[in-house]
Design brief:
By secondary structure, this protein is mainly α. It is built from 14 helices and two strands. Helix content is 63%, strand content 2%. The protein has a two-stranded antiparallel sheet with strand order 1-2. A hairpin with a 4-residue loop joins β1 and β2. It binds benzoyl coenzyme A. Benzoyl coenzyme A binds next to α2, α6 and α9.
Length: 333
């Protein structure tokens, strides 16, 4: 399909699918499913959106672990709603991926067979109820930092899905912080639980932003440069990581917890916090399947897929029956 959203090529210039795509992106217009796009752009979008969708679905597990052991009915209702929101995010994202010509079932197979990644953060265990609060505060906080710029991502269906997801993530972050404030006003044992959870989730939260932009731990086949040219990504991984640290340090102070980094210090010259280096060897191990919970997370997802097969078959059979009854004869064959 040719590109015609008021983005015209120069007089005398011959329009090609490639130049149409480039002009669209340069003009900050959205690329829509029927627009011509380079195969590599399509493959990058499928990879990123699928990885994101898988993260939302696998991300239900660490918190879902605590639903039946919530300390009150109110906390249970809040957590249940939050985990359901993550399922919804997964569904928006799989739908966005499907606009690129891939199939959700196939993406799920690629996940359970270890052929597609999901966020490193969900391969850590949630050991106490304070983890529910810290996941909301730090993990959703990092997600917001990373995802707000994606609302301006060049691929239209992804950018639009991100607008709604970010609104819900902001709400999630506040519920986590509110839970932690309540625990910090409680007993010494509760304050210790919050500090312990903060100690365990801080460094993995910094790793969510991906490998560093430069240095030995940078990815040898990193995507940032190309993705920034295509306006999929708007900032590098390190820029967003810094933004997250700057945003979170005052929140930790207000809460009364210590972030587990001896190198954390305000740098007046840069107008930002200096901070230590995450353990990039650990990150590499986690994203290549060797984190503390990788096997458990995938086994759980695979079991849910197998256990739900009869539901999907029944739903498909029902849909076929309803369509046969309601569509005109010419359309029902
Ligand atoms: N974990 O060149 P890079 C949530 C991989 S859900 C695993 O920087 P890119 C939430 C990367 O895929 C949070 N793998 O890549 C849900 C690449 O792999 P390949 C999920 C990672 O794509 C429930 C290689 O490392 N958010 O918030 O330009 C409850 C090189 O990296 C990770 C999203 O998915 C990682 N952390 O940038 C609560 C956001 N980081 O190709 C909360 C959308 C990197 O070598 N995604 N890799 O196999 C993005 O913004 C980007 O894809 C990333 C990575 C910034 C994550």
């Amino acid at each position: 399909m040719s590109v015609d959203r008021g983005v015209k090529c120069a007089p005398g210039e011959q329009e090609t699918p490639e130049s149409g795509f480039e002009r669209l992106v340069a003009a900050e217009q959205r690329v829509e499913p029927r627009d011509a796009m380079p195969d590599a752009y399509r493959a990058t979008m499928v990879r990123q959106i699928a990885q994101h969708a898988h993260s939302e679905i696998i991300g239900m597990q660490p918190e879902g672990n605590w639903i039946s052991r919530s300390p009150s009915l109110r906390r249970k209702a809040i957590l249940l709603a939050k985990v359901q929101d993550e399922a919804g995010h997964g569904l928006y994202l799989y739908s966005a991926a499907e606009t690129l010509g891939v199939d959700r079932d196939d993406l799920t197979r690629r996940l359970v067979e270890g052929r597609q990644k999901y966020s490193s953060i969900f391969n850590y265990p949630s050991l106490s109820y304070a983890d529910v609060g810290v996941i909301g505060w730090l993990v959703d906080g990092a997600a917001i930092c990373n995802q707000v710029p994606l609302c301006r991502s060049s691929y239209g269906p992804y950018a639009r899905a991100m607008v709604r997801i970010c609104k819900e993530e902001s709400f999630h972050q506040r519920q986590g912080y509110e839970l932690l404030l309540t625990m910090m006003r409680g007993s010494d044992a509760q304050r210790e639980m919050v500090q312990d959870a903060t100690n365990r989730w801080w460094w993995p939260s910094l790793m969510m932003f991906g490998p560093p932009d430069t240095g030995d731990a940078a990815s040898p086949h990193g995507h940032t440069e190309q993705s920034m040219r295509w306006r999929i990504k708007r900032h590098t991984n390190d820029e967003l990581r810094q933004r997250f640290v700057d945003m979170t340090v005052p929140q930790a102070d207000a809460l009364g917890v210590t972030l587990p980094d001896a190198e954390l210090a305000w740098n007046a010259e840069r107008g930002s916090y200096d901070f230590g280096t995450p353990d990039w060897d650990e990150f590499k191990a986690v994203i290549s399947g060797h984190g503390p919970c990788n096997a458990e997370r995938i086994a759980h997802r695979r079991a849910a897929l197998d256990d739900g097969a009869w539901v999907r078959e029944a739903a498909a059979a029902h849909a076929a029956k309803v369509n046969t009854h309601t569509l005109p004869l010419s359309m029902s064959r």
